[in-house]
């Protein structure tokens, strides 16, 4: 019976991935229906906290976008990259990491991609090298961002074990930075030089290089900068309140004074920022809900609702079986659990959904909180299958043709920097935990 249930789960996941968009969410809901009404499984916990976090954070990001704050950030990044063209292979991933860390979404990398391609080609550097590193590093930074759905989901899972949000990001920030550097290093000499690339030479000879026309410089309103400062202040306030619970309002509870939960704090702070962005920074409400940022958040929320709820139902119903068969193996080699997390990330296409599904399983299997924090970057397996939106966009924006998806699906431009980034991030996480003596 377990195998039939697993077949339903995998079938729903693969069908949803093929559908794209919110497909994984709706097929996950259908799979949950079958597990409940056909197999009689008790529904697991719906990931309401994570969904509310996504909605509040993506609303704030949409306000930042509407107020032209993202344009302001991209402009700063573009000037920095153009001033250092010779080092773009090393700098582009770090800029991508920082942009995602500050903005709370990996899709900000889409705005940086044309700049990276332009600077690399003018410098004679194969654009694939910095572009692949940028794409992977911007996704890897999700697990370092204190307001991302994945980070908050892990903090929620580990909170009963005395782990705070700051305990997670103290490890994930340096670990993912090291990972981004590792991903850029493996790309330094990757592939033929641009001048020797046959695809590029053929496009040059045939006039097939379609360079985008330089857009006129648009003056940004002064409020664009203030919207960025306000967003960064909000993120800093969230980190401060996570690090110092005594600053949060508290009420008498069963265990004494209980401060307001960080899940609620993040939602309140992000929605408050959104209100201020509309009132003071000219963010347009209609533009917010119709923009790309809000749409991507809606897709993520539906995906997590269906896929994570279905997966949690299956795992909780069969938890004794998992504990009996694999708990001894996991305890002897905890890093093996990272492979399971990574595989689930490849399937689910979402860091947040993977965290919500796999980290509670890790706790149930008896893995210590430091181990789960160290392997947290394994949830960034979204780059393995070249159908993730950021990967497709990078291939399409590289007009030189150096960034490619291979004939065998997995032999694409992002697999090497991706694996190097993930492996280095996890290794750095374990090393940092060892240095802390935990």
Automatic annotation (TrEMBL):
<feature type="transmembrane region" description="Helical">
    <location>
        <begin position="46"/>
        <end position="67"/>
    </location>
</feature>
<feature type="transmembrane region" description="Helical">
    <location>
        <begin position="414"/>
        <end position="435"/>
    </location>
</feature>
<keyword id="KW-0813">Transport</keyword>
<keyword id="KW-0472">Membrane</keyword>
<protein>
    <recommendedName>
        <fullName>C4-dicarboxylate transporter</fullName>
    </recommendedName>
</protein>
<comment type="similarity">
    <text>Belongs to the DcuA/DcuB transporter (TC 2.A.13.1) family.</text>
</comment>
<feature type="transmembrane region" description="Helical">
    <location>
        <begin position="361"/>
        <end position="385"/>
    </location>
</feature>
<feature type="transmembrane region" description="Helical">
    <location>
        <begin position="6"/>
        <end position="39"/>
    </location>
</feature>
<feature type="transmembrane region" description="Helical">
    <location>
        <begin position="292"/>
        <end position="309"/>
    </location>
</feature>
<feature type="transmembrane region" description="Helical">
    <location>
        <begin position="168"/>
        <end position="188"/>
    </location>
</feature>
<comment type="function">
    <text>Responsible for the transport of C4-dicarboxylates.</text>
</comment>
<keyword id="KW-1133">Transmembrane helix</keyword>
<feature type="transmembrane region" description="Helical">
    <location>
        <begin position="329"/>
        <end position="349"/>
    </location>
</feature>
<keyword id="KW-1003">Cell membrane</keyword>
<dbReference type="InterPro" id="IPR004668">
    <property type="entry name" value="Anaer_Dcu_memb_transpt"/>
</dbReference>
<feature type="transmembrane region" description="Helical">
    <location>
        <begin position="228"/>
        <end position="247"/>
    </location>
</feature>
<keyword id="KW-0997">Cell inner membrane</keyword>
<keyword id="KW-0812">Transmembrane</keyword>
<feature type="transmembrane region" description="Helical">
    <location>
        <begin position="87"/>
        <end position="120"/>
    </location>
</feature>
<feature type="transmembrane region" description="Helical">
    <location>
        <begin position="259"/>
        <end position="280"/>
    </location>
</feature>
<dbReference type="Pfam" id="PF03605">
    <property type="entry name" value="DcuA_DcuB"/>
</dbReference>
């Amino acid at each position: 019976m377990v195998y039939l249930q697993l077949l339903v789960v995998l079938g729903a996941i693969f069908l949803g991935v093929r559908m794209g968009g919110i497909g994984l969410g709706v097929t996950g809901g259908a799979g949950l229906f079958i597990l409940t009404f056909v197999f009689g499984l008790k529904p697991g916990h719906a990931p309401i906290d994570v969904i509310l976090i996504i909605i509040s954070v993506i609303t704030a990001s949409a306000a930042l976008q509407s107020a032209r704050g993202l344009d302001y950030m991209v402009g700063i990044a573009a000037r920095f990259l153009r001033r250092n063209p010779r080092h773009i292979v090393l700098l582009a991933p770090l800029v991508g990491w920082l942009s995602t860390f500050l903005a709370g979404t990996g899709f900000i990398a889409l705005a940086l991609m044309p700049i990276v391609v332009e600077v690399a080609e003018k410098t004679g550097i194969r654009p694939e090298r910095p572009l692949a590193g940028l794409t992977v590093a911007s996704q890897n930074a999700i697990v370092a961002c204190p307001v991302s759905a994945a980070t908050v989901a892990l903090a929620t899972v580990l909170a009963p074990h005395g782990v705070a949000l700051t305990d997670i990001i103290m490890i994930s920030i340096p670990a993912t930075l090291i990972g981004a550097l590792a991903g850029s290093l493996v790309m330094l000499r990757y592939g033929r030089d641009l001048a020797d690339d046959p695809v590029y030479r053929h496009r040059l000879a045939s006039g097939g290089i379609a360079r985008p026309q330089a857009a006129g410089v648009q003056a940004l309103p002064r409020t664009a900068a203030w919207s960025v400062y306000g967003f960064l202040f909000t993120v800093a306030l969230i980190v401060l309140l996570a690090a110092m619970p005594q600053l949060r309002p508290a009420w008498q509870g069963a265990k004494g004074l209980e401060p307001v939960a960080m899940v609620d704090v993040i939602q309140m702070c992000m929605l408050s920022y959104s209100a201020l962005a509309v009132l003071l920074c000219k963010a347009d409400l209609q533009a917010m809900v119709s923009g790309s940022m809000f749409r991507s958040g809606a897709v993520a929320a539906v995906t997590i609702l269906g896929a994570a709820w279905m997966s949690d139902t299956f795992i909780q119903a069969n938890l004794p079986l998992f504990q009996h068969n694999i708990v001894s193996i996991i305890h002897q080699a905890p890093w093996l659990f990272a492979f399971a997390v990574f595989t689930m990330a490849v399937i689910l296409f979402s860091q947040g959904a993977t965290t919500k599904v796999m980290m509670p399983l890790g706790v149930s299997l008896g893995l210590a909180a430091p181990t789960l924090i160290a392997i947290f970057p394994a949830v960034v397996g979204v780059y393995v299958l070249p159908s993730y939106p950021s990967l497709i966009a990078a291939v399409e924006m590289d007009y030189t043709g150096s960034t490619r998806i291979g004939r065998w699906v997995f032999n694409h431009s992002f697999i090497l920097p991706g694996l190097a980034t993930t492996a280095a991030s996890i290794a750095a996480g374990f090393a940092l935990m060892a240095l802390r003596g935990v």
